[in-house]
Amino acid sequence: MFWTPELAYFLEDAPWPASKEDLIDFANRTGAPQQVIDNLMELEELDVEYEGIEDIWPEYENATEDYFYDEDDEENNQY
Fold it and tell me: Residue 12 contacts by C-beta under 8 Å, 6 or more apart in sequence?
């Protein structure tokens, strides 16, 4: 299972808490990329309720902090 911030973004509006089946259904209905669906299918537990993307990808919060930056800050820091 390989997650990136771009892939995880497709689950931000998922109906949390959600089961594996609920998340796969949501991903299919919203047109998420096949990689998102493949990642969800690799989840082991069928009867677990996931509270958020962090339950699926624990590094999500750190990954988004590193990946998404404030472009305004970058413009203000130019020489």
Answer: 53
